[in-house]
Amino acid sequence: MEVPRLDHPLSNPTSPCEEVIKNLSLEAIQLCDRDGNKSQDSGIAEMEELPVPHNIKISNITCDSFKISWEMDSKSKDRITHYFIDLNKKENKNSNKFKHKDVPTKLVAKAVPLPMTVRGHWFLSPRTEYTVAVQTASKQVDGDYVVSEWSEIIEFCTADYSKVHLTQLLEKAEVIAGRMLKFSVFYRNQHKEYFDYIREHHGNAMQPSVKDDSGSHGSPISGKLEGIFFSCSTEFNTGKPPQDSPYGRYRFEIAAEKLFNPNTNLYFGDFYCMYTAYHYVILVIAPVGSPGDEFCKQRLPQLNSKDNKFLTCTEEDGMLVYHHAQDVILEVIYTDPVDLSLGTVAEITGHQLMSLSTANAKKDPSCKTCNISVGR
User: Fold this and answer.
1) 54-158 CATH fold
2) Are 109 and 85 in contact (CB under 8 A)?
3) Given a cut of 50, is residue 101 above it in pLDDT?
4) Do the bridges between strand 129-139 and strand 116-119 make them parallel or antiparallel, or are there none, so unpaired?
5) DSSP state of 164
6) Edge-to-edge strands of the sheet including 116-119?
7) What is the rounded distance in angstroms from the CA atom of residue 236 to the CA atom of residue 224?
């Protein structure tokens, strides 16, 4: 059964928990831990027999919501007035031990038919592991609560951004994309050893690899989509690729029509920044009908290759003409192998600017330009 969203009692005073807010503080809930230990000042009465939730089930998981249900013994079930839900991010053994721990979230809801929907971007993040436990509670006339023991602890992981969320990111990116500049080549910078390895071990063909975790935490392509990164940005005064790069002093250049043409589809993948004034847009080019195309078709918003704010391929006088957005840095992922014989490899004359690398770069969660209200 679908029920009204379950909100944090201190975050939304118009939620179904409004009555609870007047009588029960968040602090009081936190003073009752999963072991049933309660402070004498917590406002929660001594424990009496209430059914303990068991066989907890989590379903309909999205990037910022889930449904929860459980079973209970019928004994004293009619005395239950509220549910307490203890939600915590699962500890990461590799996390920074000096970083402040996330504050556990204690949720309060009136006893409604199950399953109930838990929704809230202020305490749920995409692609994040959580633990959850439940108590039943009975509100007394004096405002105190009688509570059951905590249920067993269940683990689950929230989902990636959906197409709906990515479309929201897309619309925010369109606002700052700027005017379009003409370009003619895609390029990829790497170290000399990379290209030597490709020639020796992969028959001269660059192979797709799994995208790293850079960008939005909820991006469905991070750690899943296989592809090859290319750039297409040009210098305003020359119309040619810049001579500097953060990724290596050797550059593979390939004519734009070799990768982006009427036989490919174009998808929007992400929009982010790294605590800087400039922003990145990730686009995916996939040959029609390829595995990469099928992957993107299910998860990413598709763009009109001839008419969008970021990267276009149009025909003029029988020739394909290409334009890219000026005010964002485009990162283009091509999902199929690319043979080096289709282009050229040469050393650039500029510098290797490591500070501009986006490898595993984390998105600035406070930026109002590139964030949406469903976690980061």
Assistant:
1) Immunoglobulin-like (2.60.40)
2) yes
3) no
4) unpaired
5) H
6) 54-59, 65-71, 116-119
7) 34
DSSP string, 346-358: EE-SS-B-GGG--
* Distance of alpha carbon 319 from alpha carbon 322, whole angstroms: 10
**Two structure tokens written together for 307:** 């008419």
Whole-number pLDDT of residue 253: 97
The Cα–Cα gap between 175 and 152 comes to: 47
Estimate to the nearest angstrom the gap between the alpha carbon of 334 and the chain centroid.
Answer: 21
User: Which residues make up the CATH 2.60.40.10 domain(s) of the chain?
Assistant: 54-158
Give me the phi and psi of 104, to 5 degrees please.
Answer: -60, 150
Q: Dig out the tokens for 14 from the structure.
A: 């118009």
**Cα separation values, 107 from 69, 123, 151, 360, Å:** 15, 10, 15, 33
Look-up of token digits 């990515």: 166
Average pLDDT for 169-198: 95
Q: What pTM, to 2 d.p., does this model score?
A: 0.79
Helix, strand or coil for residue 201? helix
State how far the Cα of 69 lies from the Cα of 54, in Å rounded to an integer: 9
DSSP-derived pairing of the beta strands 154-157 and 180-183: unpaired
Tokens of 296: 């993107």
DSSP string, 191-227: -HHHHHHHHHHSTTEEPPEE--S-B-TT-TTTTT-EE
Query: What letter represents residue 135's amino acid?
Result: Q
AA identity, residue 332:
V
Q: What count of other Cβ atoms lies within 10 Å of the Cβ of residue 343?
A: 19
**What's the CA gap between 139 and 36, in Å, rounded?**
17
CA 269 to CA 327: how far, in whole Å?
17
Give CA–CA dist 349/365, Å, rounded: 36
The one-letter amino acid at 54: H
- The predicted-structure confidence for 192-203, as pLDDT tens digits, reads as follows 999 999 999 999
Q: Any idea what DSSP says for residue 168?
A: H
Structure confidence at residue 125 as a pLDDT band (50, 70, 90)? confident
374: closest CA among 25, 128, 22, 64? 64
Q: Tally the residues of the chain.
A: 376
**First CA to last CA distance, the chain:** 29
